[in-house]
Amino acid sequence: MSNQEAVEIKEHSEKVHELDSLFKPKSIAIIGASSKELSIGNVILKNLVHYGYTGKIYPINPKEPEIRGIKAYTNIFDVPGDIDLAHVIIPSKFVPQIIEDCGKRGIKSVIINSAGFSEMGDEGIALQKAFLDNAKKYGVRVFGPNCQGIINTDPAFKAYCDFTFTFPNPGSISIVALSGGVGAFIMQSLFDLDIGMRMYASNGNACDVSISDVVKYYGEDDGTKAIILYTEGFSNPKEFMDVAKIVAKKKPILAMKSGRTEEGSKAAASHTGSLAGVDISTELIFEKIGMLSFSNEEEMCQASMAFSTQPIPKGNRVGIITNTGGPAVIATDELVSAGMQIPLLSDRAKNILKETMLPEATIGNPIDVVATGGGNHFRSALDVMMEEENIDSIFINFVTAPFTDTDEVARNIVEVSNLKRKPIVCNFMTNLSLERFQVTAKILKDGGVPCYSFPTTAAKAMGALYKYHLVQSRNIGEPENFKNVNQQNTKQILEKGKAEGKDFLTSADTYTILSNYGISVAEWRIANSVSDSVKAALEIGFPVVIKADAASLVHKSDLGGVKINIKNADEVKNVVEDMLQKFNTSDLKFFIQKFLPGGKELIAGVSAKQELGHLIMFGIGGIYVEVLKDVTFKISPVTKLEASEMLSTIKASKLLDGVRGEKGIHKESVIEIIQRLSQLVTDFPEIQEMDLNPIMAFEDKAFVVDARIKI
Amino acid sequence: MSNQEAVEIKEHSEKVHELDSLFKPKSIAIIGASSKELSIGNVILKNLVHYGYTGKIYPINPKEPEIRGIKAYTNIFDVPGDIDLAHVIIPSKFVPQIIEDCGKRGIKSVIINSAGFSEMGDEGIALQKAFLDNAKKYGVRVFGPNCQGIINTDPAFKAYCDFTFTFPNPGSISIVALSGGVGAFIMQSLFDLDIGMRMYASNGNACDVSISDVVKYYGEDDGTKAIILYTEGFSNPKEFMDVAKIVAKKKPILAMKSGRTEEGSKAAASHTGSLAGVDISTELIFEKIGMLSFSNEEEMCQASMAFSTQPIPKGNRVGIITNTGGPAVIATDELVSAGMQIPLLSDRAKNILKETMLPEATIGNPIDVVATGGGNHFRSALDVMMEEENIDSIFINFVTAPFTDTDEVARNIVEVSNLKRKPIVCNFMTNLSLERFQVTAKILKDGGVPCYSFPTTAAKAMGALYKYHLVQSRNIGEPENFKNVNQQNTKQILEKGKAEGKDFLTSADTYTILSNYGISVAEWRIANSVSDSVKAALEIGFPVVIKADAASLVHKSDLGGVKINIKNADEVKNVVEDMLQKFNTSDLKFFIQKFLPGGKELIAGVSAKQELGHLIMFGIGGIYVEVLKDVTFKISPVTKLEASEMLSTIKASKLLDGVRGEKGIHKESVIEIIQRLSQLVTDFPEIQEMDLNPIMAFEDKAFVVDARIKI
C-alpha cells in the first residue's frame, strides 16, 4: 500500500464514524410515527420492532401518547436520552424546520422517507436546498430524501429503518441501490436464495449521503465481504471512482447499471429525473476501477452467493466432478465461454481414481462418479482435485440420486469446502419438497457450499469468481507523465482560441499543440502564398498534401480544400492558386504536409464528459469505424496498459498484427500517441473534442496526418 | 395445409397409436421389481404407486410373492391380464431373452432402464442388436436402453415410469431430453416454478423410439401446449427435421443443445459415446424449422411458464405497467435488447389515464401507477393497454407494497389476463415467506399469470413469446427448382472424376458443372498449348487470367500457377511458356479466363455433413472471412428467403449496399448463385466440398471467378 493510500484509508476511517449514527444507531426517533395501520409511519415502527432492533425507539407524534405499545413523544425535544438517528416521514413542507430541530437536538443523522423534493420540480428543489442548508449548519448527515432507508442486520443492532417487507438473515453481502424498487427485490432475492445480508442502503435523491459514501462505509466494514451496487448513473463519477477503486481492491463490488438502451435510459430519466442519455461511461467506470459488471440482476444475485463464502480462485483452471453426464456438458460450455479451462488430470490423479472410483465411473475432467457413486467416491474425487496443481477451482454437479446416501455426499463436500483452499460451487439438483433432501440441502448450506439449481447458473457464478481474480490481478498502473511537453505554449494557444471565440482551432494551432505534446505528426509547414507554399513543399520533400486552412473551413475536405499526393512544384503552384480563388477568406493559409501513403489508417478521438473528464476512443479507420462501429473507449487519463488494451480489444485487432501478407503496425508508437493524447486532455480539460483522424501507422512508426480540436 | 402435409399428419396419427402403449399404458409389468429399499427395481414400483398410477401394476420377480403389498408374478406369462408396457430393470445380458418373451406375450412397448449396451463398447452393442432384433420380430417398441423412462401426468393415467424424485403437477408443457440428468432437473425446475407438466421422456441410448418419435407424439397430443427439448445432437437429423418442422408450426418447441464449445462437446462425447465434434448444424436445424433455441436452461424453463398460459403476441410492441421505477428501467433494457419496442401512448390513452391515475403517477409508457396505486389504478392501466392498437403485449412490474391491497391488484390483473387477448407477463416482487403475499401470489398463479422474480427474467420470457411470433411468421418457402440445368452431364463428370480416383475436379470440369447449373462464371476457355492460349485470350478479350490446370495442382496459386491481369498476346505467350517449364506434368492445360477487377470479392462454400446433407456458407472475401470470421451458414437446400438472409445476416452486410462512395452489389445475382449452388449439391450429395472463391460482385451482375469441387 502506498503512503497516499494509507492516508486515504485513515481519512476514510475517520469519516466512517460519522455514518455510524446512520448504520449503527443506538437510538432512533421516528418523526411522523403513526398508529394508523398500513401507513408508512406505522410500517416503519412495526418493522423496527419486528426485526428486533436493539436500541431505543422514540416515536414522535403530537397526538398519540403511545404507538404499538411504545411511549410516543410530542416532539424530539421531549425525548429524554440521546438520539443518534431520526427517521422522518412527514410532508415535505415541514422537513426544513424538522431538520433545524434535529440539528439543535444534536441528532447526527436523519433518514428522510418523504417525497416531494428535487424529483418534483422547482418548489421541491427549493425545499431540498432549505433543509440541506439547515443540516449543514449543524453537521447533520442526511440520507434521502424520497428514499427507502437503511438496514443493518448485525445482531448488535438489527436496525431495520425501511418500509419494505423482507427481513433478511445476517450475512456478509451489503447492498446499495439508487432505486429502492431494485434494491428491495435484490434483497428479497438474496433472502429467497438463503444468502445472508449485512447492510442495505437505498438513498433515493441522495442529496447528502451519496452512493460513494455508502460504498466507502461498506469498504471499511469488516463484516461486509462483498458489495452489490445498482445504479442508473452517477451524479459525481469522479468522487465515486476515487472511493470505489480503493474498495474494489479489498472486496468484490458486483455492479449493475441499467439504462443500457436508449429506451431504458429514457425510462431511467423519467424515473430519477436526474440522469439522461445513453452513455457508456458507467460501464467504463466499472471497468477502470475493477468492479464486476452485470447486465442481468439475477446472475448478480446468484454470483453473490459464491462470493459470500468462497475464496477467489488463483487461475482459470476448473476441475469438474459430476454424478450425471448432461449437466456436466452444459457446465463445461458455460465455464469455457467465461474464459476458463478444463485441464486434463495428471497421471497421479488418474492412478488414485482408478483405485477409488466405481468401475463404471469416467476418470478424467469431468470426473463422472456416476449416479450410484456415494460419499467416499465424491470425497476421493474432491481430494484429488484439491491436490491437483493445475486445478484452481472445483465445480460439482450433484444430483440427489434416490438410491444413494446423499447426506454422506453432502458431508464430504462440506469437509473439503471447509479447507477454503480452492473455491467450490455446486449445481445441486434435487427436490426440496422432499424432507430427506431438505436435510442434504441443509448440510450443504450450513457448510457454506454455494448451491445452484442449474448448471449454467452455477457455472456463471464460478465465472464471476474467476472474473474477480482477473480484475484483482489487473494492475493498470499509473498514467505516464511525459516530461518533454510544452504546457505553457499549449495554454496560450487555447486561451487565444477561446478569446477569439473559436469552436475549432486552425490546423496550425492544432498541429502545434500536438507537437507540444510530443505527438508524432507528419512534417508540416504553414504557408501564406503560392511561393511560400512551393518553398515549404520543397523543404518537406515530395509528395505532399495541401490543405486550405481557415477558421471558417471545418469540412474542408468536402469543399475541395484538401489535395493529396502532390508530386512537384508546378502542382503545388496550381493547387494553391486554385484554392486562393475558391476560398475567398482573408485568414486563408496553406497547410503543407508530407504525404504518407501505404500505412494503416487508425483513428483516435477524445470527447469531454461532464463531471467525469474525457473519454478516449480508438479504432481502425474507414469501414471499421464508419460501418462496423468497431471502436473502443476508455476514461482518461489512460495508463500504458489501458492504451495497449485499446489496441487489443477492438474486434479487428488482428489487422494491427498484419494479415494476408500485409505488414503489422508499430503498436508502441500508437500506444504512446494515445497516452500523450490522454495527458494533453487531462492537462487541458477545456478541450471538448479532439480527433486524430487518421493516424497513419507503419511497420516502424506512426504519424498523425489529420487532426481537429474543438474547445 | 398441403396435401402432402395432410398425408404426413395422418401417418403420424396412425403411428401415434403405437406409442400410446408407452405413454398411456393401461397396465405395466415391472420386470426386475425388487423388495430391496432404494434399489431401482423398488424405486420404480414405489414411484408408480406414489404418483397414483390408474392402471394395473404387475411386479415380476421369481422369488417374491408380493412387493410393496402388490402381488408379484414369477414371469410375465403368469400375469393374468393384458400388459401394455413392460419396464425392464434386469442386467443387460438377460434383456434379449426378456424382449423375446415380451414379444411372445404380446406386450407392445418396453422401457429398458438397464445400462450395459451400446454405451459400453462391442459387447454391449451386440447385446443391443440382439434384443432389438427380437423386438422388431414381434413389433415391440423399445424405449431406451440406459434411460430414465417416461412420465404422463394426465389424471387418466398418472404413469410415472421413472426412478427420479420429482412428482410434477399436471400441466401443458412436455419435456423430451436425451440426457436424463438434464431432463430431471428441467422437470424439477418446472416443479419449483410451479409450472405444470404434461409428459416427460428421456430415452438414453434411443435404440428405437427416437427423440423424433417423441416430438411427433407430443405434437399430436392436444394436452401439450409447448415442448421443451434438450439434446447433445441428433443421430438422424433429417428425420428430426421432417417431424419437427410440422410440430413447430403448431406449437412452440423450446430447445437447447449443449456441447457448444469444443470442451463441451468433448464432455458430451464421453457422456453419450455417440456424438463428437463441435458442430453448428444443430443450431441451424433449430433455426431452419422454427424452434426457439436457448443457450441457458434456466431461461428456457422460465420462458416455458409464459408459453404454458399466454397467447403469442402479434408484434413487438410492449406496454409496461409498473408500480416502482427501477425495475421498469431494467425491463425496458431487456425488452429492447430482445428486439421489442416501447411505443408512445395515444392521446386517447393519456386522456383516460389523466382521469384515473393518482396525481404522482407517470402517464406514458411505462405507466408508473406508483407504489400506492391500488387495484383500480392497475386495472385502468391494463384496460388502456388492452385497447391500445399499437400495443401487442403487456409487461407488469408489481411490487407488493405493504400499504396497498395487493390481492385486489392481483385480481384485476387476472381478470384482464383471462381475456387472453394480449400476452401478459408479470415481474412479481414480493416476499413469499409472508402469508399475506402468498395469498396474492396464489391469485395470480391460479389466474394463469406468469410471474417472475426478476425484471430481466420476465422480460426474457416476453422476448421468447415474441421470438415465437417471429419464427411462426417467417415462411421460408420451398427451395426453387431451376429448370435450365444439365444434370446428365454433371453426373457424367462426377462419375468420371470418381472413377479416376480424383479428390478435386479440374478447373475445366469444375467450370463445366457450374455452367451446367447456370451459375454465372467469368468467360473461360481451356487451352493445351501456347498458340491455343493466345487464341483463347483473343476470343475472350483482354485482360485475362491464366491458371495452370492439372489434377496434381491443388494449391496452384502458391506455386505460381496463377497469373492475373494479362493484357496482350505477348504476355500470354510468356506466361504459358513459363508455366510449361515450371510444371512438368503430362496433363497440364491452361485455363484462360476473363479478368474482372474492381468488383467486391464474395465467398460461397459448401460442405457435406453426414446424415444431414450440406451446409452452405457465405461471406465477404479477404479479411472479413479470413480474419474477422464473418460468415454465415444454412442447411441446404436453401430457399430464396434463406439465401437472401445469408446476405443480410453477416456482420458486414452493409458493405453489400455500398458504403463510403462505393457502389453496392447486385444482390439478386448473388442470391441466385447461392440457390443454384444449393440445388447442385442437393442433386449430387456425393459432392463433399465446394468453394466459389471469389465470386466477383458488381453493381449489375456477379460472376464466379475461381471455384473448387471436392468429391
Explained architecture:
The structure is a homodimer of 711-residue chains. Chain A has 711 residues and is α/β, with parallel strands linked by helices. Among the domains of chain A are: 16-146, NAD(P)-binding Rossmann-like Domain (Rossmann fold); 310-473, 3-Layer(aba) Sandwich (Rossmann fold); 523-595, ATP-grasp fold, A domain (Dna Ligase, domain 1); 600-710, ATP-grasp fold, B domain (D-amino Acid Aminotransferase, Chain A, domain 1). In chain A, strands 9-8-11-10-12-13-14 form a seven-stranded mixed sheet, with helices on both faces. In chain A, strands 24, 25, 26, 27, 28 and 29 form a six-stranded antiparallel sheet that branches. A five-stranded parallel sheet of chain A has the order 2-1-5-6-7, with helices on both faces. At the A-B interface, helix 5, helix 8, helix 11 and helix 16 of A face helix 5, helix 8, helix 11 and helix 16 of B.
Largest sheet descriptor of chain A: 7 strands, mixed
Strand content of chain A: 15-25%
Oligomeric status: homodimer
* Poorly predicted runs of 5 or more residues of chain A: 1-16, 272-278
Alpha-carbon distance between the termini of chain A? 39 Å
Question: What's the number of helices of chain A?
Answer: 24
Helices, strands, pairings?
Two copies of one chain form a homodimer.
Chain A lengths: L2 H21 L3 E5 L8 H11 L5 E5 L5 E2 L2 E2 L13 E4 L6 H11 L3 E4 L9 H17 L2 E3 L5 E4 L6 E3 L8 E8 L2 H13 L4 E6 L8 H10 L5 E6 L5 H14 L2 E5 L4 H11 L8 H9 L2 E3 L2 H13 L8 E5 L2 H13 L9 H10 L10 E2 L6 H13 L5 E7 L6 H12 L6 E6 L5 H12 L4 E2 L2 H19 L13 H13 L7 H10 L7 E4 L2 H11 L3 E6 L12 E5 L2 H14 L6 E6 L5 E10 L3 E8 L2 H4 L4 E5 L4 H10 L4 H4 L9 H17 L5 E9 L4 E3 L2 E4 L1
Helix pairs in contact in A: 3-4, 6-7, 7-9, 10-16, 11-16, 12-13, 13-14, 14-15, 17-18, 19-20, 22-24
